[in-house]
Each structure stands twice: as structure tokens, then as C-alpha cells.
């Protein structure tokens, strides 16, 4: 009928191997996968809120969870480094570079507005043309007045 092992320990080695993995291999693989899962959870929990998330849950002043809606557009002339860092593709270093650049040139700029169009963002050290283009859909620039049209306080999205 069936083949039974002659000795009790004869088939233990074969039974211990599942898909060609020994018990040590399975244990190592399990630990590796658990570590990777832990890393993913850690990064998910620590991830900063992003502008493309729309609605996020934050802690209110009393410690309870509060649902907040993030603005779709950010004015680079008034935004903090934290607000700029929420733009997808913009990290903390780039956001700090934008704020530092703005602070250094604010006194020389008319009305304190350093960034009037997307090309002005490209002048910031560390921000290339591609990064500026990616940021463009999340930035709101003040409308510049021309002799024919008066200036308005409303911002235009991604003015180029």
C-alpha cells in the first residue's frame, strides 16, 4: 500500500522541508518579512500629510482626532516650510531652501512677494526645472498687474 518509514526519524527531515526550505530558512524568511512589514508600517505612520491627500485626520488641541481638509493650493510667498513640504515631491530640505531664499530676498521684492511665477521658484538653489514644474500644480502665485488690468488679491494656480 503506502510506504511507511522504517525508522521513526527517517522522514522527519523530509517533513521539515516545505517547498525546499528548511526550518531555519523559513524562520529567517519569516523574520525578514516581519521586519519589512514593520518598516512599512513605521513609514506609513510617520509620513507627513500631503496636499494630494485632501482630507486627513490630525490631533486636535484636546488630543482627540479631528478631520481636517488641506488646501489644494499653497502661496509660496506666505507658506511655512511645513506647508511647502506637504507638496508631493518636495522634501523638508527643499521646503527649507524655499523659505530661506524667500526670507533673504523679501526686502528687495515689491510687496514682499519673491515668487511671482514658476520661473522664480526655479532660481532657488536645489530646485531644478523639473522639480519646479512638478510643484506648479500645487502653487498659487499672486496675479501681477499689467497696465490694462488692475492687480487683484486672488492667486492664480500654477501661473507660469
Describe the model.
Mean pLDDT is 76; it is low at 151-156. The strands form 2 sheets. A two-stranded antiparallel ribbon has the order 1-2. The protein has helices at 12-16, 23-46, 81-85, 92-105, 118-122, 129-136, and strands at 55-59, 65-69, 140-142, 155-157. It is 38% helix and 10% strand. It has 6 helices and 4 strands. It folds into 2 domains: 12-46; 73-157, DNA polymerase, domain 1 (Orthogonal Bundle). By secondary structure, the protein is α+β, with helices and mostly antiparallel strands.
Quick description:
The protein is built from six helices and four strands, in the order H-H-E-E-H-H-H-H-E-E.
Instruction: Characterize the main sheet.
Output: 2 strands, antiparallel
Can you tell me the number of structural domains? 2
CATH class label of the largest domain: Mainly Alpha
Count of alpha/pi helices: 6
Gyration radius from CA atoms, angstroms: 28 Å
Provide the low-confidence segments as ranges.
Answer: 151-156
CATH architecture of the largest domain: Orthogonal Bundle
Mean pLDDT: 76
SSE map:
Elements: H1 12-16, H2 23-46, E1 55-59, E2 65-69, H3 81-85, H4 92-105, H5 118-122, H6 129-136, E3 140-142, E4 155-157
Antiparallel strand pairs: 1-2, 3-4
Distinctive features:
DNA polymerase, domain 1; 160 residues; 2 domains; 6 helices; two-stranded antiparallel ribbon; alpha+beta; 38% helix; single chain
Amino acid at each position: 500500500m503506502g510506504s511507511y518509514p522504517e525508522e521513526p526519524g527517517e522522514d522527519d527531515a523530509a517533513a521539515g522541508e516545505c517547498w525546499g526550505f528548511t526550518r531555519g530558512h523559513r524562520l529567517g524568511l519569516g523574520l525578514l518579512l516581519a521586519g519589512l512589514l514593520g518598516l512599512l508600517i513605521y513609514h506609513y505612520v510617520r509620513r507627513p500629510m500631503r496636499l494630494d491627500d485632501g482630507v486627513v485626520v490630525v490631533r486636535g488641541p484636546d488630543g482627540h482626532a479631528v478631520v481636517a481638509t488641506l488646501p489644494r493650493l499653497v502661496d509660496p510667498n506666505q507658506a511655512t516650510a511645513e506647508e511647502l513640504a506637504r507638496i508631493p515631491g518636495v522634501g523638508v530640505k527643499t521646503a527649507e531652501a524655499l523659505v530661506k531664499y524667500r526670507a533673504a530676498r523679501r526686502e528687495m521684492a515689491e510687496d514682499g512677494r519673491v515668487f511671482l511665477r514658476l520661473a522664480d521658484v526655479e532660481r532657488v538653489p536645489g530646485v531644478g526645472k523639473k522639480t519646479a514644474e512638478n510643484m506648479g500644480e500645487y502653487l498659487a502665485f499672486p496675479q501681477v498687474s499689467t497696465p490694462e488690468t488692475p492687480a487683484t488679491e486672488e492667486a492664480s494656480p500654477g501661473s507660469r
